[in-house]
Amino acid sequence: MMSPERRLFSLFNWAWKRFLPERDWWRSFLLNPALWLVAILFVLITVVHYQAVIYPVSLVDFLAKLGLSPRTLERVLYLIPIILASFLFRGWEGLGVALAAVICMLPAAVIDTETAFGALLEVGAVALVGCLVALGVGWFRKEYQQRARLVALNYISNVVSQSLELEEILESSINSILEVMDVDAVMIFLLDKETRELRLRAHRGVSSAFVAGVDKLKVGEGLNGMVALTGMPAVIRDASRDPRVTKSAVRREGLHSQVIVPIKSKGKVLGTLSVAMRRQRKFLPEEVELLVAIGGQIGMAVENANLYDEQRKFIERLQTSEERFRQIFENAHDAIWVHDMDGNIISANAAAARLTGYDVDTLLRMNVKSFLTDEGLSLAREIRKKLLNNEPVVQPYEQKLVTKTGTEAILKLTTNLITRDGTPVGFQHVARDVTREKRLQESLRYYLGQITKAQEEERKRIARELHDETIQALVVLTRRIDEIVAGDRGISEYKKILLENLREQIESIIQDVRRLSQDLRPPALDTLGLIPALEGLAADIEKHSGININVKVCGTVRRFPSEVELILFRIVQEALRNVWRHSGATSAEVVVEFDTGETRVTVRDNGRGFDVPDMVGDLLKEGRMGLAGMQERIQLLNGTLSIESQRGRGTTITVRAPL
Prior knowledge:
Layout: H1 4-19, H2 25-30, H3 33-50, H4 57-65, H5 70-77, H6 79-88, H7 91-111, H8 116-160, H9 166-181, E1 185-191, E2 197-204, H10 208-214, E3 216-218, H11 222-230, E4 234-236, H12 248-253, E5 258-265, E6 268-276, H13 285-331, E7 335-340, E8 345-348, H14 350-356, H15 360-363, H16 374-388, E9 397-402, E10 408-420, E11 423-433, H17 435-487, H18 493-520, H19 523-527, H20 530-545, E12 548-554, H21 562-583, E13 587-595, E14 598-605, H22 625-635, E15 640-645, E16 651-657
Parallel strand pairs: 12-13
Antiparallel strand pairs: 1-2, 1-6, 2-3, 4-5, 5-6, 7-8, 7-11, 9-10, 10-11, 13-14, 14-16, 15-16
């Protein structure tokens, strides 16, 4: 059972097909039975009007009572073909029949001299009524057609809006167009965004060979391509003879009259809608306007379907990404947990449960403050403040956590701010337990410190023995040689020369031993401090190497414990030795910066430079033992070592220590 809306649409569809000419104008007009019906009625009335017809007495008496004559009745009868022509054709045809009726009535009215004035009035009245009827019918027809178009558009709009699936929309659109337009074929081309080609996405009434022949059209190619390029509709009287047709499949298909309109949405062409006949047909402007409106409806539906498809694909990708993230989250070896702005945990993985000792369900009922010491809570607040203020945070940073058993775990923690629509809603933490590594590093640092301390003690002992014993013995030896040369006058000149040479060699050995003693343990370091020791070191190396070395101090000089100053001295000593032995530099600079909470020492040269490995630990593999030793020494102070070097551009070594 059809709905009222469906019945109304069928009624308007019947009226549309019935009252709008579809075929070639002359042929359809001459072959229209309605034309001959109007013509026969008109001729019969005209014959009666000019023939002496004897009317029944009763009719004459009835007309007399109304104040009318048989002639008046005959003139009134002309209104029948006028009204009939207005309804069966259009208002203009009704006006034409009214004009013909006036022409036919005037001779009879003029011939009747006795009642000529009254007859002319009657002719004028009939003409006036006929014209009013024709104009009224024309206005009614226009309103009727407008309403029919609105009903058709409303029907198609309802059909295409019932689904967001593109294929269903196109098929429903084609079915609706076939009902409304009464055409032989309907084709919908949509523009491929990537290839910029028109693809035949839906069709009805054409062969598979035709579909294969016109499936891909470049924008501007053929009639559909031209409409897609210009965005303007095209009416083709006979496509089989139109030179703009570029595909032979169109001619083989036997399509003649066509209307092609753009499918638009928001002013952008999305494709074309084409209706075609296998015979010639004159499409009225109203039909073209209707197709343009239908193209707009389809365009909006296609745009909505594309948006729906994109949204569906986005949701599918989002779901896939969420599932993948959930798997990574659950199976991650690092502990991950998320808490809101108040610190309440809202999500945690299995690794977080293993780290804290609580199961996941228990964690979801806890606050992060339960895990943190006072020191850790203070650090967490500082990190939170920086993230909320969009300040840089060095990550990962070290944080301490108290487990369920009360033991302390050391973490390398990365914290990210979670926002929703620009508003902070929580924090995500990714933590790696480095407690064991930290303990091993502390043990390694302790043993390395002990070894270094033992080495320095041994160096100090050797330096003292060299100074107190070896150098003193050599000095005594030189004095003994002097005594021999001065006291024994019987020694030949040749032997004196040999003794003098021996004495010079011993003096040279004394200088070497003294320098070795100073390298092992510079006396100035213990007595005067780091800066004088570095200045003495620079002067000594400059003297023997010829390299211009400048020592620069920034900030207020302060003393450190002897073991700290010794470590910094050894690092600079090793760096300057590398400059002397390997760099080929002509100048070098040592900069010591005393800053608040940190001391920086920089050694730079203008030597040949080298390729720095990605990791400092790779220095050992490359045989750069001195640089590796610097790294080990600065780690004893919880400091860092950085190396910058390029071939031909020198080298810069910077150590930073929290002193």
